[in-house]
Amino acid sequence: MFSPELKKGSTEMLVLSLVETRPRHGYEIGKLIESRSGGRITFALPTLYPTLLRLENRGLIKGRWVEKPGARDRCFYRLTAEGRRVLAEKRATWLDFIAAVSDVMSATDA
Q1: In a domain, 28, yes or no
Q2: Residue 63 structural domain
Q3: Are 83 and 55 in contact (CB under 8 A)?
Q4: Is residue 98 in a domain?
Q5: DSSP 8-state class, residue 23
Q6: What pTM was estimated for this model as a whole?
Q7: 109 lies in a domain?
Q8: What is the CA radius of gyration of the chain?
Q9: How far apart are CA 106 and CA 19, in angstroms?
Q10: Is 108 domain-assigned?
Q11: What order of strands is seen across the sheet that includes strand 61-66?
Q12: Are 65 and 83 in contact (CB under 8 A)?
Protein backbone atom coordinates (compact mmCIF):
# COMPACT_ATOMS: atom_id res chain seq x y z
CA MET A 1 0.00 0.00 0.00
CA PHE A 2 2.82 2.43 0.85
CA SER A 3 5.86 3.07 -1.31
CA PRO A 4 9.07 1.20 -0.53
CA GLU A 5 10.76 4.55 0.17
CA LEU A 6 8.29 5.35 2.97
CA LYS A 7 8.76 1.91 4.50
CA LYS A 8 12.53 2.10 4.22
CA GLY A 9 12.65 5.45 5.97
CA SER A 10 10.57 4.27 8.91
CA THR A 11 11.71 0.67 9.45
CA GLU A 12 14.31 1.44 12.11
CA MET A 13 11.92 3.66 14.05
CA LEU A 14 9.20 0.99 13.97
CA VAL A 15 11.57 -1.73 15.17
CA LEU A 16 13.02 0.43 17.95
CA SER A 17 9.56 1.40 19.17
CA LEU A 18 8.44 -2.24 19.33
CA VAL A 19 11.37 -3.36 21.47
CA GLU A 20 11.07 -0.32 23.74
CA THR A 21 8.71 -1.97 26.24
CA ARG A 22 10.06 -5.53 26.20
CA PRO A 23 12.37 -7.85 24.26
CA ARG A 24 10.90 -9.33 21.08
CA HIS A 25 12.11 -11.70 18.37
CA GLY A 26 12.18 -10.84 14.67
CA TYR A 27 9.07 -12.78 13.66
CA GLU A 28 7.05 -11.14 16.45
CA ILE A 29 8.29 -7.69 15.40
CA GLY A 30 7.19 -8.29 11.81
CA LYS A 31 3.78 -9.56 12.86
CA LEU A 32 3.23 -6.66 15.26
CA ILE A 33 4.03 -4.12 12.55
CA GLU A 34 1.50 -5.82 10.29
CA SER A 35 -1.24 -6.15 12.92
CA ARG A 36 -0.86 -2.69 14.47
CA SER A 37 -0.93 -1.09 11.02
CA GLY A 38 -4.08 -2.96 10.09
CA GLY A 39 -2.13 -4.84 7.41
CA ARG A 40 -1.09 -1.63 5.65
CA ILE A 41 2.59 -2.09 6.51
CA THR A 42 4.22 -5.47 6.03
CA PHE A 43 7.80 -6.64 5.88
CA ALA A 44 9.06 -9.89 4.47
CA LEU A 45 11.19 -11.42 7.21
CA PRO A 46 14.31 -11.58 5.00
CA THR A 47 14.17 -7.77 4.74
CA LEU A 48 13.58 -7.25 8.46
CA TYR A 49 16.56 -9.28 9.73
CA PRO A 50 19.23 -7.07 8.07
CA THR A 51 17.63 -4.09 9.84
CA LEU A 52 17.88 -5.91 13.18
CA LEU A 53 21.54 -6.72 12.48
CA ARG A 54 22.29 -3.09 11.53
CA LEU A 55 20.61 -1.79 14.70
CA GLU A 56 22.55 -4.28 16.80
CA ASN A 57 25.85 -3.38 15.13
CA ARG A 58 25.17 0.30 15.90
CA GLY A 59 24.51 -0.55 19.57
CA LEU A 60 20.84 0.49 19.49
CA ILE A 61 19.49 -2.97 20.31
CA LYS A 62 21.00 -6.04 21.92
CA GLY A 63 20.09 -9.58 20.94
CA ARG A 64 20.03 -12.61 23.24
CA TRP A 65 19.48 -16.14 22.00
CA VAL A 66 16.93 -18.16 23.94
CA GLU A 67 16.61 -21.93 23.72
CA LYS A 68 13.35 -23.64 24.59
CA PRO A 69 12.89 -27.42 24.49
CA GLY A 70 10.78 -28.45 21.52
CA ALA A 71 10.96 -25.00 19.92
CA ARG A 72 13.43 -23.33 17.61
CA ASP A 73 16.06 -21.05 19.08
CA ARG A 74 15.08 -17.38 18.88
CA CYS A 75 17.00 -14.17 19.27
CA PHE A 76 15.15 -11.66 21.43
CA TYR A 77 16.12 -8.02 20.94
CA ARG A 78 15.92 -5.32 23.59
CA LEU A 79 16.50 -1.58 23.39
CA THR A 80 19.80 -0.26 24.75
CA ALA A 81 20.28 3.12 26.45
CA GLU A 82 21.66 4.50 23.18
CA GLY A 83 18.68 3.00 21.35
CA ARG A 84 16.32 4.83 23.70
CA ARG A 85 18.06 8.11 22.97
CA VAL A 86 17.96 7.55 19.20
CA LEU A 87 14.30 6.48 19.33
CA ALA A 88 13.38 9.68 21.19
CA GLU A 89 15.14 11.73 18.49
CA LYS A 90 13.47 9.78 15.67
CA ARG A 91 10.04 10.19 17.27
CA ALA A 92 10.48 13.95 17.66
CA THR A 93 11.72 14.33 14.08
CA TRP A 94 8.89 12.16 12.74
CA LEU A 95 6.21 14.13 14.60
CA ASP A 96 7.69 17.43 13.37
CA PHE A 97 7.75 16.10 9.81
CA ILE A 98 4.12 14.91 9.99
CA ALA A 99 3.04 18.29 11.36
CA ALA A 100 4.92 20.17 8.61
CA VAL A 101 3.43 18.01 5.85
CA SER A 102 -0.01 18.38 7.36
CA ASP A 103 0.39 22.17 7.54
CA VAL A 104 1.41 22.34 3.89
CA MET A 105 -1.42 20.09 2.72
CA SER A 106 -4.12 21.84 4.75
CA ALA A 107 -3.06 25.42 3.99
CA THR A 108 -5.35 27.44 1.80
CA ASP A 109 -4.23 30.24 -0.47
CA ALA A 110 -5.55 33.52 0.75
Answers
A1: yes
A2: 4-103
A3: yes
A4: yes
A5: -
A6: 0.86
A7: no
A8: 16
A9: 34
A10: no
A11: 24-25, 74-79, 61-66
A12: no
